[in-house]
Amino acid sequence: MMFREVVAQSVPFSDDVGMSDALWSKLIGTVPSVLWVAFAATVYFTLRGTIVQRMVPRLTAVRALGVEVELAGELLDRAQDESTTTVTATARRTALGRLEHAADVLRGGKLLWVDDRPEGNAPLVELFRTAGMHIDVTLSTEEATPLFRRRPYDIIVSDIDRDGDRQAGIKMLRLLEQYKIDVPVLIYTGRFDPERGVDRRIFAATTAPVELVHYVIDLMERARLGSL
Questions:
Q1: Cβ neighbours of residue 205 under 8 Å, at least 6 residues apart?
Q2: What is the sign, positive or negative, of the torsion defined by CA atoms of 146, 148, 151, 157?
Q3: What is the pLDDT of residues 85-99, one digit of tens each?
Q4: How far apart are the C-alpha atoms of 74 and 127, rounded to whole Å?
Q5: Is residue 53 classed as helix, strand or coil in its secondary structure?
Q6: Strand, helix or coil for residue 24
Q7: Which of 6-10, 16-20, 69-73, 78-82 is modeled with the greatest confidence?
Q8: Mind listing the pLDDT tens digit for each residue in 139-182?
Q9: Strand pairing partners for 105?
Q10: How far is CA 215 from CA 78, 95, 129, 137, 155, in A?
Q11: Closest listed residue to residue 201, CA positions, set 171, 164, 227, 226
């Protein structure tokens, strides 16, 4: 009777041993995976500083670019609100696309803006300054003359009518010739009739903000190529 009891009690022990062996086999089988996880964790925490340093500038650049493009769109829309011309969505996207890819071309450019009503040009002035350009704003030819005589500008943007003089912008062109200042001039004005002709000193004339953006980029590209 005692022998049967001993045998009966020993059976569960054998089962426990079998289960322990199976458990150990599973544990041993997971060791390589655990080691790989530990190795990866060690490498990550060891190189974490380097990884972060390399990623942060790239993420910052992407974020900054997104902010610049968004801001450029807002400024271009504000400039359009000040204009009497209409612009298509395609033309707007094209102008913003050029601005995005022309950052290196515009950065450091020097532009003189002559207009007796600068408030209407404020969004575009801010737009070009955001792109890294240096902008001087003057209200008259008299104010502009000492500036363009002593400072090397890449572009001059001017209106035509100023203070009741419908030829003020054209008269400024004659002064540029008198002082032998060879700077391309863009006419940006709310009232312009191309059928009246364009002075030979004028690179382009427009009433549309998106077109002015293209012209400024075109001229800065030429200035950069000329300096190579």
A1: 186, 187, 188, 189, 192, 194, 198
A2: positive
A3: 889 999 999 999 999
A4: 9
A5: helix
A6: helix
A7: 78-82
A8: 999 999 999 999 999 999 999 888 888 889 989 999 999 999 99
A9: none
A10: 19, 10, 16, 18, 10
A11: 171
Residue 21 Rama label (left phi>0; alpha psi -120 to 50; beta)? alpha
Place of tokens 């070009």: 128
Q: Between the CA of residue 115 and those of 5, 33, 38, 120, 157, what are the distances in Å?
A: 112, 72, 68, 9, 8
Helix, strand, or coil (residue 165): strand
Q: How many CB atoms lie within 10 A of CB 50?
A: 9
Q: What mean pLDDT, rounded, does the chain reach?
A: 78
Handedness of CA 3, 6, 9, 11 (dihedral sign): negative
The two tokens of residue 58 are 């790239």
φ, ψ at 162 (rounded to 5°): -140, 130
The SS3 call for residue 185 is strand
pTM across the whole model = 0.69
State the DSSP H helix or E strand holding residue 63, giving kind and residue range, or none if neither.
helix 2-82
Count Cβ atoms below 10 Å from residue 147 Cβ, excluding itself: 14
| Secondary structure, 3-state, 125-164 | HHHHHHCCCEEEEECCHHHHHHHHHHCCCCEEEECCCECC
Helix (H) or strand (E) holding 203: strand 202-206
